[in-house]
Design brief:
Strand order of the largest sheet: 3-2-1-4-5-7-6
CATH superfamily: Vaccinia Virus protein VP39
Order of helices and strands: HEHEHEHHEHEHEE
Largest sheet: 7 strands, mixed
CATH architecture: 3-Layer(aba) Sandwich
Number of helices: 7
Structural class: alpha/beta
Radius of gyration: 23 Å
Shape: globular
Number of domains: 1
Length: 243
Amino acid sequence: MASRILSLPIRAVRKALSPISSRFNAMLFDWRSRHREYLSRQLLFDTIVGFVADCQIEGDYLEFGCFGGGSLVDIFHTMRGHHRLANVQFFIFDSFEGLPEPTGLDANEFRRYERGQFACSLDQYIANIRRQGVPIERARCIPGWYDKTLNAELKKNLRIKKASIVLIDCDLYESTVPVLDFIADYIQDGTVLIFDDWFSYKGRLDLGEARAFNEWLAKNPRIHATEYHKAGRTMISFIMKVD
């Protein structure tokens, strides 16, 4: 009898809370659905930064294609949790005018992008990352079209020794080719390459960043890639090895 009496208020509480619980679960599902891409991306960054720290991969962070600064902000704050990465410098390469006019393979029937897409001015980019807590003295921005700026003279001026993480968010095959040629000397055992748009062309690996990467590996037989983590709809990463 006593247990039956005690169960009455418990059932009443459960009944009263049931609508609240249902609304909470619905809100949680909605939030997770809307942020799934970001959470997947952040997990990739956490994993890669942790790998670089644990394996003591020395070198700087290079990003090609930065849009509004979200990737740099996330990577920077993720690195703050690892004291071994306190001296990493951040080099950001972008036209700051959006994408170039798609040509060649990028202008075929799989054309996905337009000239000027993802444009963010240099001033706006700097304001964005500063507002999100990235000290501007840690981030060096190099404006310009890759086929014009990524050359030996720029390497001499930047004085980058090695790269620990390289994020390639070029979208286009023609933009990715000069980027990979530029970073070849910075690759070391343990460097992690992240491609933001690997699967953007219906998963075809003969287009976009994937094609450029596979051609680059064939051209540089001393460099090897081991597939690492994937994220979101189109991202993939590789751990590099150099003979």
